[in-house]
Amino acid sequence: MAAHDIPGSGQQVGSPTQRTTAVPLDERRRMRHEARTSQTYKAFLKYLRDVGQFPSDQAAEDAAVSVLCVLEQRLVGEEDKDLEAQLPMKLREVMVRCDRHEAGPPPRKFGRVEMLAMVAEDLDMDPDDTEPVIRAVFSAIQAQVSIGESEDIAGELPPDLRDLWTHPT
């Protein structure tokens, strides 16, 4: 049987199709995974920038890191791990106690005023200006997780923090 060109495909009928590349399959998979991870994170930052009206990706990222670190300190039991499991890979990396709080006390219960103060200190802001930042980050996080997980987190928070979580924008 003679090989025939398939128009526009660059292939021939009757000839074996082989992908020739110098990059091993495992490396190509790793590269695709990193590209998807990076795209997901960029989409998260874009969403956060739009919702929070942050001036740059760096400002949005700083806000996300601060709020996630403080939130992680507030969640007790396994809820922080459940939330982390639903976040994009690059967000999982920041959903751990930030360096500043790593040596601090274990997760504990605190309310809105303390959360505003902690985020304000992290971001070098006035505590009165941090509520919109927290609401924007909460909105971006909720866009990444299931409704059930969002409800589980709301159930862990006291009423004053639950209001920030359930009405993020």
Automatic annotation (TrEMBL):
InterPro entries, A to Z: DUF2267 (IPR018727), DUF2267_sf (IPR038282)
Pfam family, any one: DUF2267
Polar residues bias: start-end ranges: 9-21
Protein name, UniProt field: DUF2267 domain-containing protein
Lineage, top ranks: Bacteria, Pseudomonadati, Myxococcota, Myxococcia, Myxococcales
Residue ranges, annotated region (Disordered): 1-34
